[in-house]
Amino acid sequence: MNEARHQVVVVGAGFGGLEFTRALAGAPVRITMIDKRNHHLFQPLLYQVATTALATSEVAWPIRHLLRKRKDVTTLLANIVGVDRAGKRVLLDDGSAVAYDTLVLATGARHAYFGHDEWEPFAPGLKTLEDATTVRRRILLAFEQAERETDPAKRQALLTIAIVGGGPTGVELAGTIAELAHDTLRGEFRNIDTRETRVVLIEAGDRILANFAPKLSEYARKALERLGVTLELGHAVTRCDAEGVVFGDTHLPARTILWAAGVAGSPAAEWLGAKADRAGRVLVEPDLSVPGSPEIFVIGDAALVLRPDGRPVPGVAPSAKQEGRHVAATIKARLDGDATTRLFHYKHAGDLATIGKRAAAIDFGWIKLTGWPAWWLWGIAHIYFLIGFRNRLAVSLSWLWIYVTGQRSARLITQGDDDKT
Description:
Blueprint: E1 6-11, H1 15-23, E2 29-35, E3 39-41, H2 46-50, E4 60-62, H3 63-66, E5 73-77, E6 80-84, E7 89-92, E8 97-99, E9 102-105, E10 109-111, H4 129-148, H5 152-158, E11 160-164, H6 168-184, E12 198-203, H7 214-226, E13 229-233, E14 237-241, E15 244-247, E16 250-253, E17 256-259, E18 263-265, H8 268-272, E19 282-283, E20 289-290, E21 293-298, E22 303-304, H9 317-335, E23 351-355, E24 359-363, E25 368-370, H10 371-385, H11 389-405
Parallel strand pairs: 1-2, 1-9, 2-5, 9-21, 11-12, 11-17, 12-13, 19-22
Antiparallel strand pairs: 3-4, 6-7, 7-8, 10-18, 14-15, 15-16, 20-21, 23-24, 24-25
Helix pairs in contact: 1-9, 4-5
């Protein structure tokens, strides 16, 4: 009898995919969750893994464990290579296929280098646990190599960290890396003074945190400068290589470059043969379905969803979760015989960014906060959305320890292909 139920396939166990699955509980459907990784990632705190504040296990959870009580859900670890829209099948890389009656693509985003994919080996982004451990390894190895380097110019290049992109991720990376170098690592090396580390934040626009109110952007700029971060505004990056980064007329020798400047949609548009914007996001209908295929929905960073004023819905966790709930409600209504088109309405939850361990900027529209009150509110909000009491407790204790002592416990250099030692 179960086999005859409506078959729903969800691709991607991020915020949107999991929220959709949760909201569809109790519906007369069978759900297949497909992801190429076995874990759900709390991406807003990924930069803290990259900067040694948190361990990987504190921001990621096995998908099977999260869905263990949902007997209506089958979880598959697999890679998607295409979608057969006519045959209603999701195509996997081993040659098999999974049939669907309704398909939800919640496949997230990938890094965008604005036509310069050759920069990626030199300037890794931050989207996955693998990215975070790569970034952490490169940062810590730079200090280790600087300890052995006798050439002053080469040593300074090793002690220079360039971050491209002044959005929330870039600002959060810059602030916490500056604290790591100037506070946490101080006194641990004998041949270098980590306080001489240069953290340079490069932004093509005229201010950082461009989505925030101007006065919050100015606050963030001053807060970063107090931490010792150098800001380079109004300069687009024109080259990244093993020697450093070029922006405007400046060549900055830097052995560590981090990319926080842009994202692109997943290959969902390619799988569907659907229209996409320049970033590769699928141009969906107002109800989040794919034009010409009302049984296919795209949500989260993989979709371009426009608000009534023409601005796109931001690619943040709250919007993905809202879209997941909306699609679940639409499917439930259809199963009840209501085929009325349900338009998606986004409710903005606010913009948040932290700057080091004692400052943050929060823009709720009707209220704007800065300083330590904003930092505490930012922390409470993120702890609330973590999964499980154990993780909430572990992250809270880690943050409290860092706040009081300045020490970070996740400073392990794991081996990787880019190691130079």
